[in-house]
Amino acid sequence: MSTGDTRPVGTPPPVRYPRRAVILHWIVALLVIALLASGWTMVDIPRNTPERAFFFNLHKSLGIVGALFMGALIVWRLRHDAPPLPTTMPKWERRAAVLNHHLFYVLMVLMTAAGYLTSSFSKYGPKLFGIPLPHWGWEDAALRGDFATVHRILALVFAALIALHIAAALKHLLWDRDGVFQRMMPGAKMKVP
Fold first, then answer.
1. Do 172 and 164 contact (CB within 8 A), yes or no?
2. What is the pTM of this model?
3. CATH T-level assignment (fold) for domain 19-184
4. How far apart are CA 13 and CA 35, in angstroms?
5. How many CB atoms lie within 10 A of CB 193?
6. For 106-165, what is each residue's pLDDT tens digit?
C-alpha cells in the first residue's frame, strides 16, 4: 500500500488483480501502444519504399501477436470477476471504470478484425513476420479502404479511451491515493483474491 493512502480509517484496502491478469494487462498494453505508434507512423511513409513495407509488416505481425494476448485476456476476464473497486469511490466513477473496460474489450475485437480484413482485401495479405496467413477476402481496393477507415476510426476511439484510462489511473495514484492504481502494478503489496 502506498504511504500516501488517504482511505478512511477502517476501510479495507483494495484487492489486487492476480498475477496472470497483471501480466496479460501489461503485455496487451505494450502491444497496443506499439500498434498505435506503428500505425500512425506507417501511413506517413511514402508508398513503394522498404520502410513502408517494414512498418506495415511489423504492424500486421504485432496485431496478430496482440490478438492472441488480447484473446487470452478476454477469456481470463470472462472466467473471473474483476476485484471490486473501493466503495469509497463515487458510484458514477465505478460505473465509468466498468464501461471503459468493456469498451476496451469490444474495441480490441473489432479493431483486430477490421485490421485483418483490411489486409485480407489487399494484394499483400495478412502476414506474421513475413509468413503469409489465410485471406478472408480477395483483392478489392474499395473494401480494403472501407475496412481501413473502420480500423483507423476504432484506433482513434481506442486511443481516446486509453488516455482516459491513464488519466483516471493517475488520479487514483496522485490525487485520491486510494490504492486503485496499485491493483494492476507488478509487485504491489496488496491482498490478492
1. no
2. 0.87
3. Fumarate Reductase Cytochrome B subunit (1.20.950)
4. 35
5. 11
6. 999 999 999 999 999 999 999 999 999 998 999 999 999 999 999 999 999 999 999 999
